[in-house]
């Protein structure tokens, strides 16, 4: 069988192509022919070289306007002639392959119509696009239990029996491999002078950045041997840097910015615990934090909230605080800081190879 993944944008800014890169090699091992459409961007090429075997066929298109991008993708799909077209994110730039002989699979990783900043006409258009995906798709893949329930209910509402698969993210065994302190470069091993609490993701307010900063501002008053490491960039990165300067937290907070994939395991290996803040909003109930799965193989405590996928995955093994409460987050950090026990997290079933097996079986059961 031949599959073509359709992505858009630079992976530094739009991370939905992570799914294609994660599934590509395992699908090759199962006998699939794999093609990926990606924007011609330096970081995209770097990630492909890092994650994909030579058997994965990558087709690059130039950055352009919406209509030109759609035309370029349709030309490539016509040349490839796949059995399945996998849409990594259902945005206008990815509405391709209409009326063709292949099966169209659409992944939903968030519920955009629930984002608070999307209002008025834009909200109506966004919601309409979500419903249109049900008619467009032959199969829907949902990255969270919440999304699975939403799209199963919506499919029944519009009287279309579209197969729906609960399909959360996973981790790469090559990328997320714990390393001993002795094997780390000196610039990482020297950071073990303190206990490190590590976050990976977008540096944005709705990802809990300022809740974490407020919590460590409180902790720094009495603790000198604790550090917050915020990995990534985002729309509030500069404000976060200013917060650290204004409150003189340079010794307690590290903001290295965008981190190369090959360095993620180095940071994760020096972590005492990981952070994954959530908000009690429809947006956060619906989304699937990909970082959660990357944390799992390092067997460290994960401090998060009883919201959506983190609670679905961690259950009683998570360290939970009330969303948005910096004081309660600080208390939970101290509880982990003072704890002598290690986490025992089930992670083997969250590899990309396991996800690929689930996908392969779902395809065989629903598309014959």
Secondary-structure blueprint:
Layout: E1 2-6, H1 18-29, E2 33-39, H2 42-51, E3 57-61, H3 66-80, E4 84-87, E5 103-108, H4 120-136, E6 139-142, H5 145-157, E7 164-166, H6 186-189, E8 195-200, H7 209-220, E9 226-231, H8 237-246, E10 253-257, H9 261-269, E11 271-276, H10 282-286, H11 290-295, E12 302-304, H12 308-314, E13 319-320, H13 326-338, H14 352-366
Parallel strand pairs: 1-2, 1-4, 2-3, 4-5, 5-6, 6-7, 8-9, 8-11, 9-10, 11-12, 12-13
Helix pairs in contact: 1-14, 7-13
3D structure, described in words:
The mean pLDDT is 94. The chain is α/β, with parallel strands linked by helices. α5 (145-157) links the parallel β6 (139-142) and β7 (164-166). The chain starts with a strand and ends with a helix. It contains 14 helices and 13 strands.
